[in-house]
Amino acid sequence: xxxxxxxxxxxxxxxxxxxxxxxxxxxxxxxxxxxxxxxxxxxxxxxxxxxxxxxxxxxxxxxxxxxxxxxxxxxxxxxxxxxxxxxxxxxxxxxxxxxxxxxxxxxxxxxxxxxxxxxxxxxxxxxxxxxxxxxxxxxxxxxxxxxxxxxxxxxxxxxxxxxxxxxxxxxxxxxxxxxxxxxxxxxxxxxxxxxxxxxxxxxxxxxxxxxxxxxxxxxxxxxxxxxxxxxxxxxxxxxxxxxxxxxxxxxxxxxxxxxxxxxxxxxxxxxxxxxxxxxxxxxxxxxxxxxxxxxxxxxxxxxxxxxxxxxxxxxxxxxxxxxxxxxxxxxxxxxxxxxxxxxxxxxxxxxxxx
Amino acid sequence: xxxxxxxxxxxxxxxxxxxxxxxxxxxxxxxxxxxxxxxxxxxxxxxxxxxxxxxxxxxxxxxxxxxxxxxxxxxxxxxxxxxxxxxxxxxxxxxxxxxxxxxxxxxxxxxxxxxxxxxxxxxxxxxxxxxxxxxxxxxxxxxxxxxxxxxxxxxxxxxxxxxxxxxxxxxxxxxxxxxxxxxxxxxxxxxxxxxxxxxxxxxxxxxxxxxxxxxxxxxxxxxxxxxxxxxxxxxxxxxxxxxxxxxxxxxxxxxxxxxxxxxxxxxxxxxxxxxxxxxxxxxxxxxxxxxxxxxxxxxxxxxxxxxxxxxxxxxxxxxxxxxxxxxxxxxxxxxxxxxxxxxxxxxxxxxxxxxxxxxxxxxxxxxxxxxxxxxxxxxxxxxxxxxxxxxxxxxxxxxxxxxxxxxxxxxxxxxxxxxxxxxxxxxxxxxxxxxxxxxxxxxxxxxxxxxxxxxxxxxxxxxxxxxxxxxxxxxxxxxxxxxxxxxxxxxxxxxxxxxxxxxxxxxxxxxxxxxxxxxxxxxxxxxxxxx
Lengths: 354, 531
Prior knowledge:
The complex is a heterodimer. Chain A is built from 13 helices and ten strands. Chain A is an alpha/beta fold. In chain A, strands 1, 2, 3, 4, 5, 6, 7, 8, 9 and 10 form a ten-stranded mixed beta sheet that branches. In chain A, strand 1 (48-52), helix 2 and strand 2 form a beta-alpha-beta unit. Chain B has 24 helices and no strands. In chain B, 52% of the residues are buried. Helix content of chain B is 76%, strand content 0%. In chain B, helix 4 packs across helix 8 and helix 6 packs across helix 15. Chain B is mainly α. At the A-B interface, helix 2, strand 2, helix 3, helix 4 and strand 6 of A face helix 4, helix 6, helix 13, helix 18 and helix 22 of B.
C-alpha cells in the first residue's frame, strides 16, 4: 500500500514537471513569433470562429496558414454563403461567429446590421470601390464578370461577340445563351445594370434575354460546363471557373472567357469579402484574420491558386488574366450591389425568376 | 376490469410519449408559422400566377415519379421473386443501390453524360450514328433522375411484403376461375397495398423536397422557389410563407394517402401457404434478366460510371488539385449516420406502435404529422433548429446532439413506415397468448413483438443510415464547427468544379453504403407467425 502511494506521488510529480516544462517551452515559442512576425498575440490566444461562405477547397489552405503564422487556433464552419447568412440571421446576437468570410457582397449585405465597423487602416488597404462605405466589410479578392463562349461556335470573339452585354438581346442569339439567374454574382451584375442603365433599360434587357430563350443553369459551374460542351454558345458568368475546367480537362476544354471591351455592367468586378461580427468576443483575432487575408502572401495565394484578382497594391495578378486597368470598369460602388431586393423583384417580373 | 384499466394505462403512456416526440419534431412547422406571421406582403407574394404554376409543376412531378416508382418496383419484385431469373440475389442488391446516391451527384453526372451535347450525344454524333438527342432538361430529366433514385423506397417494403404474401389467397382466387389480371387487381394488389402506400408516400415527399436534382436539371418546383428566396433575397420570411404552402401540399398528400385506407391490419393464419410458385421461364429468363438490368444500369452504373470517368480523367489527363481526404472525414460520416439511425429508431418506435396498436384518429394524426419533416426542404428544418437551439438550448448548439436531432426530424417517417408495415402483420394471437399467460403488456412487447419485427427495425435503421450519409443542407448548417463529412467534401469540390476531387469522396460514399444495402435485401424477411 505504501509503495502504491509513493509511486502515485512520484508519478504525479513527474507529470507536474512535464506540465511545467511544456508551459515554459510554449511561452518561448510564442515570444519567438512575437519577435519574428511582429504580430501582437495574447499569451493564450482565444480561438477564432470563422463562418466561411467560401469553400474549404479554395480558402482552407490560406486559413491554415493564418492559424500557423499567428498561433491563433481557428474553428471554421464552411457552407453556402446564402445558407450561412441565413444561419447568422437566425442566430442573431447569440452567434458564436467572429468573422463572416463571404463569397459575395450580397451575403455580407444581408447581415450588415450584425457587423461591426472595421478600423480604417484595414479598409484603406483595398481600393475604395472594393469595400462598404461605412466600413462594415472589406473586399478580399476580386472576380470579373465575363462572357464565356464556346470556341467551336465562336472562333473570333472580337468580331463575333458584341462589345456590350446589352446587344445579346438581338434575336440572332436566340437559343444560344445560358445564364444562372439564381446566382448572387449574377444578381450583383443586374443591380449594376439598374444603376448604370436605369430600370427601364435593364427590364428591356432581361425581357430580351428571356425572350431569346436563355438556358437556365443552377449556378456558374454548370453554365461554364454547358459552354464547353457546346450546349450554349455564350454564358454570363464569373471569370475564374473556366480556369479550373481547363485544369481538369486540359486545354482541349472548348470554352474561353471574353472580357467585354466596352465596359458597362457586363464587365463589373465583384468581390468576395469579410466582416467582423458585432457580438464577437474576439475582435482582435477577427481583425488579425482580415489583415492577414489582405497581406501580400495571402493576396498572392488568391491570385495564383484561385485565379482571382488581388485587391492590394503591389501584388501581381495571375498571368492568365487581363489587367484590371484594361477592363474599363464601370463606375459603381460594389456595396450598392448588395442591395438586391429591387433586383429580385425585377427578375421576378420579367420572368427570369419564379 | 383490470385488463381494461391496463390497456388504458398503456394507451396513456404511448400517447403521451408519441405526443412529446411529435411536438418536438414539429419545431420546423412552429418556426414557419412564427416567421410567416411577421410578413407584410403575404398576399402579394403568395397569390401570383407563377406560384400556382409552380405548384402544378411540383404536383405533376410528384404524380409521375410516384407512379413510375411503384410500377418499376412492382415489376422488379414480381420478376425477382416469382420467376427463375438468373443472378437473383446479385440483381436484387443492385436494384436497391440507387437509394445511396445523392441527388446532387446524380444530377451533375446526368447533365455531364446525358445533357444535350453531353458526352453520350457527342460520342453518338461523332461516330455518325445519330445527330438527334432528346433534350432531357426540365420535366423529363428531373422525372427520370428522381424516379430512379427514389423507387427503392417502394421496392424494399414491396419486396418484403411480397415474400410474406400468403399465396393461398391467390391460389383460391385462381382456382375459382378468376384470371391472372383479375386476381392481381382483386387479391394481390389490395394485400400489397400497405407496402406500396408506405413506400409511395415517401417517394412523393422526397420528390416534393428535393432540390439537388431539380436545380441541376432545371425544372422549377416549389422547393426550388423556396431555395431561390434564400439564395436570391436572403429572405427568410418569404421562404417561410412558401414553405408553409409546402407543408399544406405535404398534408394534402398525406390526407390523400388516408383515402386509400386499404385493408385493415391483416396477418396470415397459421395454416398459411408461403411457398412461392416460381414461374420456370426457358430462354426468356435471359430477356427478363436484361430487362431488369436496365433499372440498376440507369440508377447505379450511370452515376458511378460518370464519377469514375471524372476521377480517372483527373488522374491521367488533367491536373488534380489535391485529394484532401482523411480517415477522420470518413469516420465522421459513419459516426453521425450511426447515431442518427439509432436516435431515429428510438423516436420512431412509439409512434409506429401507437399508430398500429391503438389505431384511431389521434394516433393517425400524430403519425401523419411526423411525416411532414421529410417533405420540407432540409434548409428549413435546419434553420428552425438553429433558432430553437440557440435560444432555448444554447449549451447544445453546434453540437452533435442538435445535428442528430435534425436528422431525426428529417428521416423519422422512413423509420416509422418500415416498422409500421411489418408491425401491422404481426399475428395478435401471439401477443394475446403471451398476455394470457400473465406476462405484462410491456414485457410482451419486449419479448414477443419486438423480436418478431426486428428485421424491419434494422431495415428502417439502415435506411436512415444511408440517407444520413448523403444528407447535405442540414449537415452544412447544423454541424459542429470544424466538422467534416464525405457529403460536405463532395459538395465543396463539385461546386467549385474540382471534378476528380469531388468524385473520390462520392465514390467512397457509395462504396460505404454498399454493405448496408446488401443487408437490407439479404436479411431474413419472414416473420415467423406460425408455430
